[in-house]
Amino acid sequence: MLVSPIILAVALSGIWAAAFTHLRKQFLAPVVIWATAFVILIINPHSKAEYLGAAYPALLAAGAVFLENRMILNPWVLYPVKFVIPSLIFLVGLVAMPAVIPVLKVDETIQYLQDSGFSPHQMKVID
Known about the structure:
single chain; mainly alpha; 0% strand; flat
């Protein structure tokens, strides 16, 4: 739930570009930033998954630039990258929106979460 699979695919394309293409120098910094944050959060036993969210924007930018470069090189990739991926990101966000933003009444939100299969996290109350 923290990162949609489609957004994750764009981010992973940034890692791919830094590891396996001639654009290594351009994409190395965002990948190092994300990897450093990932390793620190794995090592620290008190970290939460959402702390990694701050490292995604740079990685997403690298992935988007890589996909755009691939789109220019291959016209068959133009349509999915330019239209399908942004549409899917929007639709997935639209479906997940009631789970993260209060757009419905409380009873409607609970019913939506139960019907859609999303389960809210149980929060620990600290006394």
